[in-house]
Amino acid sequence: MSAAAQPERYAVVGNPVAHSRSPFIHAAFARQTGEALEYSRLLCPLDGFAASVQAFATSSAPGKGPARGCNVTVPFKLQAPTLASRVSARAALAQAANLLRFDDAGWFADNTDGIGLVRDIESHAGFAIAGARVLLVGAGGAAAGVLGPLIEAGPREIVVANRTRENAQALVARHRRLAGALPLAARGLTDCGEAFDLVINSSSSSMQGLASPVPGSALSRGSLAIDLMYGAAAEPFLQWARAAGARARDGLGMLVEQAAEAFFVWRGVRPQTPPVLRALREQLAREAA
Asked: Which one of 47, 118, 227, 279 counts the least CB within 10 Å of its CB?
């Protein structure tokens, strides 16, 4: 096998990581685009993120090309930018990154979560964020990754609600300049009683088996409610949303879209996402049957 044909290596780094669908997604992108790459999972010790990524980046494998990058998932997104010599504007604003690219001149950190969410909402769900009243639930790394692109999509208003209101206030303050004249407010979870057009759950409530951390009055018929989780973890939230007459959507489309943007950052090629999202949903349906 020639050096040019050797598949370059990528991985998703996290803890836990065995559940990740990223290898399926990126393998599908590689087949679709003809890119020679191999994508795997890398379980990283909670106290060994930097060492694990460094070891992967400098590793070699028989018949394989060099490691060129990785996706970063929970709980390491906040640490990822510290490993890079260059950080994208969107990752700098979020203070979190979900990918690293191992450039010879120095590592590059980026965050594709927000653009992935916006593309899923507008392209796959067919919902116009422009002019909508948006409630973003949570103020952690996931919320930080999506708030900037949500602002840039042109909603009428965004409210960030969090259990610890001070954390929501800090996130809002960091995005105030980007928001400009857009109303951008921070609230506690119980202060979101009026209906919103779009409700996005980025909190840890789904991982705890809870339906929703905000009142049901935050939804109305015709609202779009999205949980950034998918699979069984998202079901309580989805059932809560449907009971209120809202359109319920999980985070699978965001997962595929953020992966497509990461693929573009790594390879300079933009894959088509609809067939990959369909295949992924079919795979999950088979597993659930």
From this structure: 47
